[in-house]
Automatic annotation (TrEMBL):
This is Hemerythrin. Keywords: Iron, Metal-binding. Residues 13-127 form the Hemerythrin-like domain. GO terms for molecular function: metal ion binding. It comes from Aminivibrio pyruvatiphilus. Belongs to the hemerythrin family. CDD domains: Hemerythrin. SUPFAM superfamilies: Hemerythrin-like.
Length: 139
């Protein structure tokens, strides 16, 4: 399983769509690393993903706060859940834990599914809500 950017994932806020393309690319890199079975590549791509996920979620949360988004708390909880999952994954690599192919594939599927669902449902709702206000978006 992998993930690839498609315009179906666009939510209609340019700054967020651009970041989502990069996030999706980093998850795809992790997917390729899992396919390759190369543990060092998996560890590297997880680190690469963590850095960008934190940066992107922060930017998205700032937009929600500045625009008084009504579901900020629930949305932020979803981001926190994802970061905790990636943190655990990083820790397992850092501590040298053996990881079977099945286990790596299950983690990859979880990250891919979460990302696709989160962008196409939760992030789309941000854009729909904020665009319905009609005023300029506070970034
Ligand atoms: Fe989000």
């Amino acid at each position: 399983m992998t993930v690839q950017w498609s315009d179906d994932l666009a939510i209609g806020i340019g700054i967020i769509d651009d970041q989502h393309k990069k996030l999706v690319e980093r998850i795809a890199s992790f997917s390729r690393a899992v396919e390759s079975g190369d543990r060092n590549r998996m560890e590297d791509t997880v680190n690469y993903l963590i850095g960008y996920a934190i940066q992107h979620f922060g930017a998205e949360e700032l937009i929600m706060i500045r625009n008084c988004y009504d579901q900020f708390r629930e949305h932020r909880d979803e981001h926190s859940w994802f970061i905790k999952e990636v943190f655990d994954l990083h820790r397992r690599f850092a501590e040298g834990e053996e990881m079977t192919r099945e286990s790596a594939e299950a983690l990859r599927d979880m990250l891919v599914n979460w990302t696709l669902d989160h962008i196409s449902v939760k992030d789309k709702r941000i854009a729909e809500t904020l665009n319905s206000f009609g005023g300029p978006l506070r970034k």
